[in-house]
Amino acid sequence: MADVFDTSDTIDTLADLVRRPSVNPMGRDVSGPEYLEGRVSDYLVHRFSVAGIPWARQPVAPSRDNVFARLEATLPNAPMLVWDAHQDTVPADGMSIEPFAPLVRDGRLYGRGACDVKGGMAAMLVALEKLRVCQRPRQATVVFSATVNEEFGFSGVKALARLWTESASGLLPADGPARALLFGQSVATGLPPSFAIVAEPTDLDVVTMHKGAVRWRMRVHGRACHSAFPERGENAIYPAGRAILALEQLASELLARHPEHPCGPPTLSIGTIHGGTGVNLVADLVVLEIDRRVVPGESPEAARSEVIQRIAEAVGSARVEHDAPFLESPGLPDADLAPNDRDSGLSQRLIAAAAACGVLSKRLAARYGTNASVLASAGVRSVVFGPGSIAQAHTADEWIDLNQVYKAAEILVEMIAPS
Questions:
Q1: Under a CB-based contact definition with an 8 Å cutoff, are residues 61 and 147 in contact?
Q2: Same domain flag for 96 and 174
Q3: Which of 328, 355, 376 is the last residue of a domain?
Q4: Are 140 and 73 in contact (CB under 8 A)?
Q5: Please, what is the end-to-end C-alpha distance for the chain in angstroms?
Q6: Which of 13, 205, 286, 354 has a CB 3.0–4.6 Å from the CB of 236, allowing a cystine?
Q7: What range does the domain containing 241 cover?
Q8: 262 and 385: one domain?
Q9: How far, in Å, CA of 283 to CA of 277, rounded?
Q10: What stretches in the chain show pLDDT beneath 70?
């Protein structure tokens, strides 16, 4: 039977994380004390320093650093397992609760990021510190990875993957400490980690396959003039409207493609639209943000090309530009394979650890995307696992079931140091 954890330490850890805002600006030109991940990064570094756990920072963008910590296996020739949890949260606009004042009530903790994904991060932190003092043998080296910018662009996990996908000459100078921590004695070979568990709210089930996405901005250009003489200009809103109708039609068609897929069919949506500067001016620019979700095995490049082609057919001679994607991911391929193949039993071992802790975990496919797709593309066998329900992620009263956070920590310890 797995150990029972001190629940107060888990609650305190999660509350510490929630009260440190780490809002992703999501591409907006905004600033303020709640934005970016620096407060969480500093907290993690301080915590690891106090605990005596080796750590490193990897700068990704201004005020946005990945933070890593490493706990060695106590058995020889042990594999390396990455525990990844992203530091950022979605914005707190429109929340019905105080977003950064964690509230515990009826077995739940409320606050922005509590579910996605600071509950999972708290479980990993508590488990890492528990493993450090555990008397049982540690059967894997654990590298805890706190990555930035998961909610908008995956730049943090891409910087992590760069540590083993790039040769030493292709790395940035600031990558050195993180690479040395990740590889230890094998830094010269640069062998990737063997496995990864990516924290997301899965209700303690194991996601072995999920969708990817390609997202970009489309710009429709016109020519401004006074609205008293609209014929003298070119109103960008009209061709943008035709493009929107074409995308609505394509979105409907996509729902009929691969409807039987475990991840659900491919999807298309427009997330934002901005255009015009005043009611008495003919609009010279409309900007749309497009989200095309792909099923594993579907090409993000081909999916984007189809969207662009439909738009071109709808707008005729209007001037349209498509920015390079700010997010592009192929999804997480099916990891539910036989042992010694791609999955190598990772999901089986995680499910067995859950069973030892009294939790019946199932294998699932998911419609959303995670850092796991980037790690899998970089050669690391990956699954997604964590406390909380996706139904509470990004909500106006975001919360997480604290019992699941406790159980997640127990399961992670049990997997590395079985009882």
A1: no
A2: yes
A3: 328
A4: yes
A5: 6
A6: 286
A7: 213-328
A8: no
A9: 7
A10: 1-5, 184-190, 335-344
Residue 306 falls within a domain, yes or no?
yes
Partner residues linked to 226 by β-bridges: 281
- Tell me the C-alpha distance between 347 and 96, whole Å: 37
Given phi > 0 = left and psi -120 to 50 = alpha, else beta, which region is 27? left
Helix intervals (H) in 105-146: 119-133
What φ, ψ does residue 57 adopt, rounded to 5°?
Answer: -110, 150
117 contact partners, CB below 8 Å, separation of at least 6: 85, 86, 150, 199, 200, 201, 386, 388
Q: What is the pLDDT of residue 6?
A: 74
Domain match, 86 and 130 both: yes
The number of angstroms, rounded, from the C-alpha of 384 to the middle of its chain's C-alpha atoms is 10
What gap in Å lies between CA 138 and CA 154, rounded to an integer? 30
Q: Residue 219, Cβ neighbours under 10 Å: how many?
A: 16
Number of structural domains, the chain?
2
Farthest CA pair distance, the chain: 81
**Domain end (from 328, 353, 375):** 328
Q: For residue 237, which phi and psi values (nearest 5 degrees)?
A: -70, -35
Q: How far apart are CA 32 and CA 36, in angstroms?
A: 9
Coil/strand/helix, residue 72:
coil
- E-state strands within 148-253: 195-198, 206-210, 212-221
Q: Please enumerate in sequence order all residues whose Cβ is within 8 A of that of 319, keeping only pairs 6 or more positions apart, or say none.
A: 220, 221, 222
Specify whether 45 is located in the same domain as 104.
yes
pTM, two decimal places: 0.93
Q: What is the pLDDT of residue 339?
A: 44
pLDDT of residue 5: 63
Amino acid at 56: A
Give me the pLDDT at residue 342, please: 47
Rg of the Cα atoms in the chain? 23
The CATH number covering residue 63 comes to: 3.40.630.10
Q: Is 341 exposed, middle or buried (0-12, 13-18, 19+ CB in 10 A)?
A: exposed
Q: Could you tell me which residues come within 8 angstroms of residue 155 by beta carbon, excluding any fewer than 6 positions away?
A: 60, 61, 64, 148, 149
